[in-house]
Amino acid sequence: MIKKGDIVYGKITNILGYGAFVSVGDYDGLIHISEFSDNFVRKIDDYVTVGQQVKLKVLDIDEKNKKLRLSYKTLNKTRGVKGEIPVFEIGFKTLEDEMPTFIEKQLKKEE
Fold first, then answer.
1. Are strands 53-62 and 27-32 parallel, antiparallel or unpaired?
2. Contact 11, 22 (CB under 8 A)
3. Is the dihedral of CA 85, 81, 46, 43 positive or negative?
4. Across the chain, what does the average pLDDT equal?
5. What HEC string does the chain produce?
6. Is residue 18 packed enough to be buried (19+ CB in 10 Å), middle (13-18) or exposed (0-12)?
7. pLDDT at residue 12 tops 60
8. Taking a C-beta distance cutoff of 8 angstroms, is the pair 32, 41 a contact?
9. Between vectors from CA 88 to CA 83 and to CA 90, what angle results, nearest 5°?
10. Nearest to 78 by CA among 19, 35, 37, 33
11. Read out DSSP for 61-93?
């Protein structure tokens, strides 16, 4: 028996503007659009496709009607910084050594 907080695997059966429907064994589930990402979700198709097997977390259960409320984002979060991480040189250079490079960069900016 499925209970709140369980991790389940389901198959996406339909996608509408407000969410995706999922089949999880004998249960029908809904992943509301707000449960796909903490960021703005333009299209659910960017996250899942019909027929895809997905790993989900059970948020709520209606045993009487065999319905589940599911979350995609809790198990499929992409974390971290988007873009490249800057590379830094570690060490110390005196102001006297760095002054010509600094002046050259400033002159290029003014051009």
1. unpaired
2. yes
3. negative
4. 87
5. CCCCCCEEEEEEEEEECCEEEEEECCEEEEEEHHHCCCCCCCCHHHCCCCCCEEEEEEEEEECCCCEEEEECCCCCCCCCCCCCCCCCCCCCCCHHHHHHHHHHHHHHHHC
6. exposed
7. yes
8. no
9. 160
10. 37
11. EETTTTEEEEESTTTS---S-SSPPPP---S--
Q: Show the tokens assigned to 62.
A: 């209606």
Name the pLDDT band for 10 (thresholds 50, 70, 90). Answer: very high
Q: The whole model's pTM is what?
A: 0.67
Tell me the average pLDDT across 74-97.
Answer: 72
